[in-house]
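Changelog-adjacent note: as of this version, every example in the card shows the full chain rather than a window. The one below runs 479 residues end to end.
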Amino acid sequence: MGCCNWRCGLITGAVFGALVAILGGVLIPVGDILIESVVETEAVIEPGTTAYDNWAAAGVVVYRQFWFFDVQNPIEVLNYGTSPVVIERGPYTYKTRYLPKDNIMFNPNMTVSFVLPLGAIFEPSMSAGSEEDKITSLNLAVAGAYSLAPEQFHGLLETLIRMSNSSLFQRRTVKELLWGYHDPLLKSTLGLFAPYNGTFDGPYNVFTGKDDISKVGIIDRWKGERKLSFWNDPYCDMINGTDASAFAPGLDKKKPLYFFSSDICRSVSASYERSYSLKDIEVYRYGLLPSTLASPIDNPDNRCFCRNFKTTKNCTMAGVLDLSSCQEGRPIYMSLPHFLHGSPSLLTDVLGLSPNEEHHSTYLDVEPNTGFTLKFAKRIQVNMMYGPSDKITVLKKVKDYTIFPLVWMNETAELDDQTADLFKEELVSRMEMLDIIQWVLLGTGTGIFVLCLVSYVVVRCCQTKTKTKTKTKTKNMLA
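Full-length structure tokens:
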């Protein structure tokens, strides 16, 4: 009876261990499915979800830091045609995107429309100086008028430049250069980002993800259109992806992320670079490839982005994007800061630049399970062009077309500690706890099963040996 109890107990223990191990093994895919279901539910853009609460509000504080290029030798450039020498001044930091989305309206086709109000508040504590600091920079009016006026009108332009006492370079305050000043040549308000406060970006229409979570956040329309009208090409005019604030849950490292930026009037892609821990949350870092602004020779897809054969040297120049077609005719050229990944000539036409991958590249840090962007740095540089002219005095010594850097900005944000703790509490900790439970059950069950099985085998062996000895002893006694 005792032997039977031992065997039954060990067999029962082995069965129990096997069941626990099976439960742990089953929980792994089931748990993943449960987590995926919860994440997808909370990632939908509709009132009551985590995604909506973060999406609709101003959310994490976004800052724009500006670095200006201060010309050190304006007289030498004018009188002798030497290359401009610049030094970097900054940062001058502004709080932006502090206003929540406005005019939010849900549509029958599973999209939501909204506008992004724009505003900027100076942050002295995060700046290298005040808004009244003066910078010697390219004269926006002279450079702009030169780019837009046909050569036959250069004589008239020369007269206007003389009458307004303008020159190729001007000395203005940070505030004036960014947000506007009255220009004597054009008799109007000019500024790199004027007008800004009180304006808005959009309207946008984006998919809510309610019927298909893989489409969440993807832009359906911008300013009422499904495609752009700046590049006169189906490929370059595509509006791809989201606005980069979030992506569909469940990222795949092998697939790029697509997003549209109204600042550069085009869509771009970012590729996976590495994983790391951000405030104890694993994130994937995605960055722009050097081919994003490569010349059409190296990247044929960029052929339709080449607009000006003179300034781009027959479309062989890399690193610069002509935005005049989407900037209401203003001759603005966009690049990465310090012409990162640009043609070598850009660094010899203007001296004093030092492109650096770490400080000048654009990146997104995205939590892979939810698709939420937890940290980002969007870094772009605003440039203008000037060139030679036989009729305009301030340009007579200029030898060739020059893409001149005016300012570069770093728009950046990172989730704060409170948001990080909430994120970990609501999602990460639950995922980790479920993961621990799964492996504890699997490990414990497997351990119990193996222990009971081994014990059973050992006990059976011992019992068999005991029976054999007993039989042998009995036979000897009978003999």
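Structural remarks: Residues 417-478 form the longest helix (62 residues).
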